[in-house]
Amino acid sequence: MREVFEIAAQDGAARIGELDVPRAGVTVETPTLMPVVNPNLITVDPARFPEFGAEMLITNSYIIKNDPDLNERALDEGLHEMLGFDGAIMTDSGSFQLAEYGEIDTDTEEILQFQRDIGSDIGTPVDIPTPPDSSREQAEEELATTQERLELAETVDVGDMLVNAPVQGSTYPDLRERAGEHAYGTSLDLFPVGAVVPLMNQYRYDDMTEAVLAAKRGLGRDAPVHLFGAGHPMMFALAAALGCDLFDSAAYAIYARDDRYLTVSGTKHLDSLHYFPCDCPVCAEHTPREVERMGDAAREELLAEHNLHVSFGELRRVKQAIKAGNLMELVEARAHAHPRTLDGYRALLDHADQLEASDPASKDAFRYTSADSARRPEVLRHHRRLARLDVAGDDVLLTEGDDNRRFDECWNVVAPFGPFPSALSTTYPLTAETPERMDAAGYEAAAEGIRRLADANPETQFTLAHHDWPATALDAVPERVETVDTSGGD
């Protein structure tokens, strides 16, 4: 793998990065979104993509190769001139057509050479995108073929064109992890997680999350990761939190052809809108009825422009959240807009230990916004570190208040983190912004912190002074820890 990717900022597994694309002579900031261009059906002129914020696009070299007119133009003019786009261009190989139709009339060596010859900046070999829920035998067999083709791709003379190493494995996390390890061990450059479009089309964001995180476990932390088909803005925050750096969107154009209007919380049909809930130029200058009365081509183009505006607007919001260290709050807000994205977020939290490994130790204030917040990496890290903190006395009060009479030492208790020495009360994440009406999950997480502290200090007597904690949380406190309800209860 060439050193083409540098991480500039990180929040959990998400990162701001710089991807050097030598053939294009540009450095692209990630996360980035690549609009998909069908060379036979262009909705928005690619020359205009920089107006929306696009630094890269993706198109299909197999379509170009098999269309005599496009083939001749691409070889004669070069891909950038043909599409009128000065940024970086990635090309797919025909693997999508392979998945759709079962066979294609090209191979890895031929298509990579063609991608090189038409001036692609990032090429793709012909991998086999094994669909979700395939038999393990099929997944293993097709993964082996994909890996053979990645090794063949290493031998093709592509000049300074970067080459993708797709990570397959269907819905088998161990195969995805193995595929990531193999791909990372090649000399190829970018690492798309493939064959997840069917999962996203079926709103199986939890299974998508498992597939991506498994691939990430096999890849090195410096590997630039592309999530194929992640084109809807409602899941950009989740995709970034999974550690994906590149997304591609055909949705902006496909949805526009069907009069569908993208938002960060889902998709609306044009005829259902009384007002445009957006302040992009399209929505600021038109009403839904005005757009509806336009001719097909004009209406489609305006809706596609809106879809690009809202997509790149959300991408900028994701980047700002990564820089500020509060991406998880954005992920949670987006997740609660749809039950299936919430499934994806909860699957992400099932792997809080994987996120914690790359999460900065200090960042913006932790905000507790729902029971899911109790499972975030910051809470897990605090619990793990309790065993490293010194307990000075033999009789220690753990309290939500200030009463330390007759005790050798007094520690603070804040849900969802649990106990900590008062000297740490101004350090991250213990400066958390939490609701006055904490839910049971927050108190249960705090009780887990108390259990870990008690286990690490078996000779110390602990007393918990709590204010009306729920029974589920008190049941999680070790029996040897005395509890006192300061609200006046038992």
TrEMBL record:
The protein's superkingdom reads Archaea
Q: How is the cofactor bound?
A: Binds 1 zinc ion per subunit.
User: A single GO BP annotation from the record?
Assistant: tRNA modification
Cite the EC number.
Answer: 2.4.2.48
UniProt cofactor(s): Zn(2+)
EC primary class: transferase
The similarity comment for this entry is: Belongs to the archaeosine tRNA-ribosyltransferase family.
The identity of this protein, by name, is tRNA-guanine(15) transglycosylase
